[in-house]
Each structure stands twice: as C-alpha cells, then as structure tokens.
Design goal:
By secondary structure, this protein is an alpha/beta fold. It contains 15 helices and 16 strands. The C terminus is likely disordered.
C-alpha cells in the first residue's frame, strides 16, 4: 500500500490515482476539501452510456448527502450525467423514480437499503463506490446496512474510502472494502490560513445561557451552537428568544423540510444562530460560520474535532468555544489535552483531572500513571 501526503503531493495526488481507476483510501479531516477528490475523477471517468447507478456515494447524513449532490449537480450536466439523492425524511416513491434513471446516486445507507429491498433501485451496475465520512457511518450504527449494500455490488469496481480516522473498526472496514488502495493523508496545519482559536469558559448553571448570549452577540458572522439532546436544542432556542436572540434548531426529530428551512434561514443570514445536535457536525459545509460554541461539551474527542471543524473554512479564521460546568471539568479535560489544548483549558481557571489509580502494590503503595 502506497502512503503519501497531500502536502507533499498537492490536492491533485488522490485525483490522479482515482482517474487511473485505482482504489483510494484517504484519511481526511473535516475541511480538507475531499469532496472534489472524488467528484472530479468520477465526472471524468463515467459516461452516460454506462447506464443508471454506475456511481454510488454513501454518506452518513441527509445534509451531507444533499451537499455532495449539489457538488455533482454543478458539473454533471455538462457531461450528460444525471444525479439523484436518496435519504430519509421525505416521500420514498418520488426519490425512487429519480434514482431509477440517475447515473450518479448519492444516498444514506438506511434509505438506500430500503429501496434495494423493495426492488426500486438496482445496484448491479455500480462501477464506482465512494464511502464519504465512513467513520461517522460507523458511529451512527450503519455498518450492518453498509455491509449488506456492499454485498449487492459487483466485486469488480473502484472503491474510494474517506474517513477522519483509519483506526480500529474503521481501518478494518477500509481494508475489507478496498483492493490494494493508494493511501493519502490530509492534514490541517495550525499555521495555515483558517486557523481555529480554541477557548474554554468556566460557567455555572445560572450563568451558562447568559455567557452563551454574550458570545453570540460578539460574533460578526454565523454561530453554530451544539447541544447534547434534541429536546435541549428546542429548549435552548426558546431561552435565546427570551434574551431577544433569534435562533433556529436542527436535529433528527425534525422533518427533512423543516431541517432544510432552518438551514436556509441560517445560511442566508436571516437567522445568525443555529442550535444543533451532533447530526449537524458532519453535514454542514458553510464558509461563513465564524463561531462554533459547545453549549454542552462533546462526549468524545473525535466529536470535538467534527464539531469545531465547522468553522475556520475556506481560508478563514474561526473560534471554537466550549462552556464547561464545574462537574464537567474532570470528564472533558482529557480529550482537550489529547487535541493539544491543555494550556487554553487551564488558562480558563479549570483544573486538569488527576491521574487515575491503576493498581495498588502488595506493600500498600499506590501507583499512579
């Protein structure tokens, strides 16, 4: 397996191998411009004569599927290629009708499997498979559906696998789905344009909303606020309204039309604050988000990366702010340290977690690591 770097070879490197029909395995953090790395080679290699569903792109969320579809639709007509997307939250039959005649199909795993089981889409002609943000698909529990979908595809195909991490189960999945792939790694450097400033703010239950309002009002662009639960998103929008801060919510319990309306209002600046659960962390691709605020700290370090990667895009700088309650400090400091933010964490007056007791010796001496 070849291992190369985007920095050393430039963004054209994965495109060159994809154009050659090779399998591609890419570790690609949010904001690394990976979408064009598969869109351009697909449009160059595929032709209308190959028939419908010659290209399949799997994405974890409806928002990401819609955005990938938009990228294809900007260029596909010039090649005579038809693009369709299928995902949950909208009527199934109209989607199936569009998908039946599309050369490029962008789908979420659950809805695609439903269509395939009903015989409404034929995957036997797929020549190129793309798994976009594969790690997120596993996080969301889609591996069984993905496995069943892949078993429906021809073995003689090109596979492009994109993921923010290639460790553990994701790495095993990558090896199972690809054949002698060229491997690429996209890194986002802290000293490149688009640097993200990381800040941690100690709050109490009484000051948390007030502190959030202060940071929202200090923002000159769009602010994305992350909360832990769907109900929490709706409640926070109401609390912000009482503070005369306009905001909209976006989460998995909303219909697709409602989510799209909220996103349009946010994207156009009619409302400058979007309150979302993690469902938005991997689907949004907006250049004008200047602030990401973790109203509720994420549970894992990779969620922190995915959330904060929504800002600092297209060469612009951004701010990532996390509000931390006293009882959350010990649980959250570890992964902030792993991401290199220990100094910012302690500068905010918060304490690092003490080393955990791993074992006690027979002599009664405690050993800590």
């Amino acid at each position: 397996m070849q291992q190369q770097s985007f920095r050393e070879l430039g963004v054209s490197a994965p495109i060159v191998d994809a154009l050659a029909g090779l399998d591609v395995l890419a570790r690609s953090p949010t904001g690394s411009g990976k979408t064009l790395a598969f869109v351009l080679p697909i449009l160059e290699r595929r032709t209308p004569a190959e028939g419908p569903s010659s290209v399949l792109v799997l994405a974890p969320t409806r928002e990401l599927a819609a955005q990938v579809t938009a990228e294809f639709e900007a260029l596909a007509p010039s090649k005579g290629l038809v693009v369709a997307s299928v995902y949950g939250g909208v009527p199934l039959r109209p989607q199936a009708k569009r998908a039946k005649n599309a050369h490029i199909l962008v789908a979420t795993p659950g809805r695609l499997e439903d269509l395939a089981e009903r015989g409404l889409v034929d995957l036997g002609g797929v020549r190129t498979l793309v798994l976009d943000e594969a790690d997120r698909m596993l996080d969301m529990g889609f591996q069984p559906q993905v496995d069943r979908i892949v078993r429906r595809l021809p073995r003689n195909r090109q596979t492009m696998f994109f993921s923010a991490t290639l460790d553990g189960a994701v790495g095993e999945l990558a090896r199972a789905y690809t054949n002698s792939p060229s491997r690429f790694e996209a890194e986002l450097s802290d000293d490149e344009p688009g640097e993200i400033e990381h800040h941690f703010v100690s709050v109490t239950a009484d000051t948390k909303v007030e502190t959030l309002v202060e940071h929202i009002r200090s923002s000159s662009g769009l602010t994305l606020v992350f909360v832990r639960t769907k109900r929490g998103a709706d409640r926070l929008v109401q609390k912000l309204a009482h503070q005369k801060v306009g905001a909209v919510a976006m989460h998995g319990d909303m219909s697709q039309n409602a989510r799209e309306r909220a996103l349009v209002r946010f994207e156009t600046g009619k409302v400058t604050t979007l309150v979302a659960t993690n469902v938005a962390a991997r689907g949004l691709d907006l250049d004008d988000i200047t602030h990401v605020i973790n109203f509720d700290p994420p549970a894992e370090d990779k969620d922190y990366v995915h959330r904060t990667g929504r800002t600092g895009r297209a060469g612009r700088s951004g701010k990532a702010i996390t509000l931390v309650l006293p009882e959350q400090q010990a649980d959250t400091c570890c992964f902030y340290h792993c991401r290199g933010h220990r100094e910012q964490f302690e500068r905010a007056g918060m304490q690092s977690a003490r080393a955990k007791l791993l074992y006690t010796s027979r002599r009664g001496r405690r050993s800590k690591w």
